[in-house]
Design goal:
This protein has 8 helices and no strands. By secondary structure, the protein is mostly helical. The chain has one domain. It starts with a helix and ends with a helix.
Length: 198
Protein backbone atom coordinates (compact mmCIF):
# COMPACT_ATOMS: atom_id res chain seq x y z
CA UNK A 1 0.00 0.00 0.00
CA UNK A 2 1.50 3.40 -0.96
CA UNK A 3 2.63 5.70 1.85
CA UNK A 4 0.14 8.41 0.88
CA UNK A 5 -2.76 5.96 1.05
CA UNK A 6 -1.67 4.76 4.49
CA UNK A 7 -1.43 8.36 5.70
CA UNK A 8 -4.90 9.22 4.41
CA UNK A 9 -6.34 6.09 6.08
CA UNK A 10 -4.67 7.10 9.35
CA UNK A 11 -6.13 10.61 9.15
CA UNK A 12 -9.58 9.19 8.37
CA UNK A 13 -9.33 6.83 11.32
CA UNK A 14 -8.34 9.66 13.63
CA UNK A 15 -11.30 11.71 12.42
CA UNK A 16 -13.72 8.86 13.13
CA UNK A 17 -12.26 7.81 16.50
CA UNK A 18 -13.62 10.72 18.59
CA UNK A 19 -17.15 9.97 17.38
CA UNK A 20 -16.78 6.35 18.44
CA UNK A 21 -15.46 7.43 21.84
CA UNK A 22 -18.52 9.63 22.32
CA UNK A 23 -21.01 6.92 21.34
CA UNK A 24 -21.75 6.14 24.99
CA UNK A 25 -23.82 9.07 26.32
CA UNK A 26 -24.50 9.96 29.91
CA UNK A 27 -20.97 10.71 31.03
CA UNK A 28 -19.74 14.19 31.91
CA UNK A 29 -16.43 13.34 30.29
CA UNK A 30 -18.18 13.26 26.91
CA UNK A 31 -19.29 16.87 27.32
CA UNK A 32 -15.71 17.93 28.02
CA UNK A 33 -14.39 15.82 25.17
CA UNK A 34 -16.92 17.29 22.72
CA UNK A 35 -16.13 20.86 23.79
CA UNK A 36 -12.40 20.20 23.55
CA UNK A 37 -12.68 18.56 20.14
CA UNK A 38 -14.65 21.54 18.82
CA UNK A 39 -12.55 24.35 20.25
CA UNK A 40 -9.48 24.30 17.94
CA UNK A 41 -11.80 24.39 14.92
CA UNK A 42 -13.63 27.48 16.20
CA UNK A 43 -11.08 30.09 15.14
CA UNK A 44 -9.21 30.60 11.89
CA UNK A 45 -6.05 31.48 13.84
CA UNK A 46 -5.92 28.08 15.56
CA UNK A 47 -6.86 26.15 12.40
CA UNK A 48 -4.23 27.86 10.26
CA UNK A 49 -1.46 27.71 12.87
CA UNK A 50 -1.98 24.01 13.57
CA UNK A 51 -2.33 23.07 9.92
CA UNK A 52 0.81 25.09 9.21
CA UNK A 53 2.74 23.06 11.79
CA UNK A 54 1.85 19.95 9.78
CA UNK A 55 2.81 21.61 6.50
CA UNK A 56 6.14 22.71 7.98
CA UNK A 57 6.79 19.16 9.22
CA UNK A 58 6.00 17.78 5.75
CA UNK A 59 8.29 20.32 4.10
CA UNK A 60 11.18 19.42 6.40
CA UNK A 61 10.51 15.68 6.11
CA UNK A 62 12.34 12.89 7.92
CA UNK A 63 11.95 12.83 11.67
CA UNK A 64 10.38 16.32 11.55
CA UNK A 65 7.18 14.59 10.38
CA UNK A 66 6.53 13.42 13.93
CA UNK A 67 8.90 15.53 16.04
CA UNK A 68 7.62 18.99 15.09
CA UNK A 69 3.91 18.20 15.68
CA UNK A 70 4.81 16.29 18.86
CA UNK A 71 6.67 19.33 20.18
CA UNK A 72 3.65 21.52 19.51
CA UNK A 73 1.17 19.14 21.16
CA UNK A 74 3.43 18.52 24.16
CA UNK A 75 4.18 22.17 24.85
CA UNK A 76 0.58 23.16 24.21
CA UNK A 77 -0.49 20.68 26.91
CA UNK A 78 2.22 22.05 29.21
CA UNK A 79 1.07 25.62 28.53
CA UNK A 80 -2.52 24.68 29.32
CA UNK A 81 -1.55 23.04 32.62
CA UNK A 82 1.01 25.58 33.82
CA UNK A 83 -0.91 28.73 32.90
CA UNK A 84 -4.42 27.58 33.90
CA UNK A 85 -6.04 30.33 35.94
CA UNK A 86 -3.26 32.81 35.16
CA UNK A 87 -3.37 35.87 32.97
CA UNK A 88 -0.78 35.52 30.22
CA UNK A 89 -0.30 38.85 28.42
CA UNK A 90 -0.35 39.14 24.64
CA UNK A 91 -1.85 35.67 24.16
CA UNK A 92 -4.08 36.58 21.20
CA UNK A 93 -1.30 38.61 19.59
CA UNK A 94 1.12 35.70 19.98
CA UNK A 95 -1.38 33.28 18.43
CA UNK A 96 -1.92 35.60 15.44
CA UNK A 97 1.84 36.07 15.14
CA UNK A 98 2.29 32.28 15.12
CA UNK A 99 0.20 32.14 11.93
CA UNK A 100 2.48 34.74 10.32
CA UNK A 101 5.72 33.08 11.44
CA UNK A 102 4.66 29.54 10.53
CA UNK A 103 3.28 30.62 7.15
CA UNK A 104 6.30 32.60 6.05
CA UNK A 105 8.70 29.96 7.40
CA UNK A 106 6.95 27.42 5.16
CA UNK A 107 7.13 29.84 2.23
CA UNK A 108 10.80 30.67 2.71
CA UNK A 109 13.72 28.71 1.36
CA UNK A 110 14.96 28.19 4.91
CA UNK A 111 15.09 24.63 6.20
CA UNK A 112 15.61 25.00 9.94
CA UNK A 113 17.12 22.05 11.79
CA UNK A 114 14.49 19.84 13.40
CA UNK A 115 15.37 21.01 16.93
CA UNK A 116 15.03 24.66 15.86
CA UNK A 117 11.66 23.95 14.23
CA UNK A 118 10.53 22.15 17.40
CA UNK A 119 11.60 25.12 19.53
CA UNK A 120 9.84 27.57 17.19
CA UNK A 121 6.49 25.78 17.18
CA UNK A 122 6.81 24.89 20.87
CA UNK A 123 7.22 28.51 21.96
CA UNK A 124 3.98 29.49 20.24
CA UNK A 125 2.24 26.30 21.41
CA UNK A 126 2.43 27.56 25.01
CA UNK A 127 0.17 30.47 24.04
CA UNK A 128 -2.23 28.21 22.13
CA UNK A 129 -2.51 25.96 25.21
CA UNK A 130 -3.17 28.95 27.45
CA UNK A 131 -5.91 30.18 25.11
CA UNK A 132 -7.57 26.76 24.96
CA UNK A 133 -7.72 26.32 28.72
CA UNK A 134 -8.76 29.95 29.21
CA UNK A 135 -11.79 29.42 26.97
CA UNK A 136 -12.86 26.13 28.55
CA UNK A 137 -16.58 26.12 29.40
CA UNK A 138 -17.17 26.23 33.15
CA UNK A 139 -19.44 23.19 33.25
CA UNK A 140 -17.21 20.57 31.57
CA UNK A 141 -14.55 18.26 33.03
CA UNK A 142 -11.07 19.61 32.38
CA UNK A 143 -9.57 16.20 31.55
CA UNK A 144 -12.08 15.44 28.80
CA UNK A 145 -11.75 18.96 27.43
CA UNK A 146 -7.96 18.69 27.40
CA UNK A 147 -8.01 15.33 25.65
CA UNK A 148 -10.42 16.79 23.10
CA UNK A 149 -8.34 19.79 22.13
CA UNK A 150 -5.16 17.70 22.01
CA UNK A 151 -6.84 15.22 19.64
CA UNK A 152 -8.18 17.99 17.39
CA UNK A 153 -4.77 19.65 17.34
CA UNK A 154 -3.16 16.37 16.28
CA UNK A 155 -5.82 16.00 13.57
CA UNK A 156 -5.06 19.46 12.21
CA UNK A 157 -1.35 18.62 12.21
CA UNK A 158 -2.13 15.37 10.36
CA UNK A 159 -4.19 17.27 7.79
CA UNK A 160 -1.29 19.66 7.24
CA UNK A 161 1.16 16.78 6.87
CA UNK A 162 -1.19 14.97 4.48
CA UNK A 163 -1.64 18.10 2.39
CA UNK A 164 2.10 18.70 2.32
CA UNK A 165 2.81 15.14 1.19
CA UNK A 166 0.11 14.76 -1.48
CA UNK A 167 0.07 18.26 -2.96
CA UNK A 168 1.87 18.35 -6.28
CA UNK A 169 1.01 14.73 -7.09
CA UNK A 170 4.54 13.41 -6.58
CA UNK A 171 6.33 16.08 -8.63
CA UNK A 172 8.91 17.57 -6.22
CA UNK A 173 9.09 20.93 -8.02
CA UNK A 174 5.32 21.30 -8.16
CA UNK A 175 5.07 20.13 -4.55
CA UNK A 176 7.58 22.77 -3.41
CA UNK A 177 5.74 25.52 -5.28
CA UNK A 178 2.34 24.45 -3.97
CA UNK A 179 3.52 24.16 -0.36
CA UNK A 180 5.25 27.53 -0.68
CA UNK A 181 2.03 29.08 -2.04
CA UNK A 182 0.13 27.65 0.94
CA UNK A 183 2.74 29.17 3.26
CA UNK A 184 2.39 32.59 1.64
CA UNK A 185 -1.41 32.42 1.92
CA UNK A 186 -1.21 31.42 5.59
CA UNK A 187 1.32 34.16 6.30
CA UNK A 188 -0.83 36.81 4.61
CA UNK A 189 -3.93 35.78 6.57
CA UNK A 190 -1.82 35.85 9.72
CA UNK A 191 -0.67 39.36 8.87
CA UNK A 192 -4.31 40.38 8.55
CA UNK A 193 -5.01 38.84 11.97
CA UNK A 194 -2.09 40.71 13.55
CA UNK A 195 -3.21 44.00 11.99
CA UNK A 196 -6.82 43.37 12.96
CA UNK A 197 -8.10 43.53 9.39
CA UNK A 198 -9.36 39.91 9.49
Amino acid sequence: MPRTTRLLLLVTGLLVAPGVAMAHPGHGMNLGLAAGLAHPWSGIDHVLAMTAVGLLAARLGGRALWAVPAAFVGLMALGAIVTAGLSLPFTEAAIALSVVVFGFTIASRLAPPVLAAMALVGAFALFHGHAHVGEMPANVPAVGYGIGFLVSTALLHALGIGLGLVIGNGDPVLQWRAVRACGVAIGLVGTGLVLGTI
